[in-house]
């Protein structure tokens, strides 16, 4: 009899845990990450994120900062770039160095393949365009 009660209590506890998990999962799905904005860049969403976004929003590898109402990203050697545009359908973010003119820019493409990260850098100077690729694992 005691064994039957212990088994029944165990099954009841298991069902309660499953229901609790499903309730929490449904609540989390009902409140997806809201898009962020900073300066002229609106609707910042996954894979990009602002540093001030909740930790579960966006990919930390594509973290952006909001400094003096400018959306900023720090790239190689800690160099600072202003974000000019995010194109989600092309997985591309366009950035510019703070000290160069608006027509000179760099495009950084973020691939949809999560196994390999291929970042393509474009630098336009007049009619010339240099294409460099960096693969991160």
TrEMBL record:
One GO MF term: polysaccharide binding
InterPro entries xrefs: WAK_GUB
UniProt keyword terms in alphabetical order: Signal
Signal peptide residues on this chain, from the entry's feature table: 1-28
Compartments where found: Membrane
Membrane-topology annotation of the record: Single-pass membrane protein
Superkingdom in the source lineage: Eukaryota
Domain Wall-associated receptor kinase galacturonan-binding: 33-96
Transmembrane segments: none
Gene Ontology CC terms, in alphabetical order: membrane
Pfam family, one: GUB_WAK_bind
Name of the protein in its database record: Wall-associated receptor kinase galacturonan-binding domain-containing protein
Organism, scientific name: Quercus suber
């Amino acid at each position: 009899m005691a064994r039957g009660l212990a088994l029944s209590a165990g099954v009841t506890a298991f069902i309660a845990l499953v229901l609790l998990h499903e309730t929490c999962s449904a609540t989390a799905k009902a409140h997806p990450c809201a898009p962020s904005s900073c300066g002229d860049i609106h609707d910042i969403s996954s894979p990009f994120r602002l540093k001030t976004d909740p930790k579960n929003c966006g990919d930390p590898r594509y973290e952006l900062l909001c400094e003096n109402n400018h959306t900023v990203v720090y790239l190689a050697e800690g160099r600072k770039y202003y974000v000019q545009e995010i194109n989600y359908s092309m997985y591309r973010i366009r950035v510019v160095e703070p000290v160069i003119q608006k027509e000179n820019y760099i495009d950084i493409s973020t691939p949809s393949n999560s196994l390999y990260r291929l970042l393509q850098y474009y630098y336009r100077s007049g009619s010339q365009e240099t294409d460099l690729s960096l693969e991160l694992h």
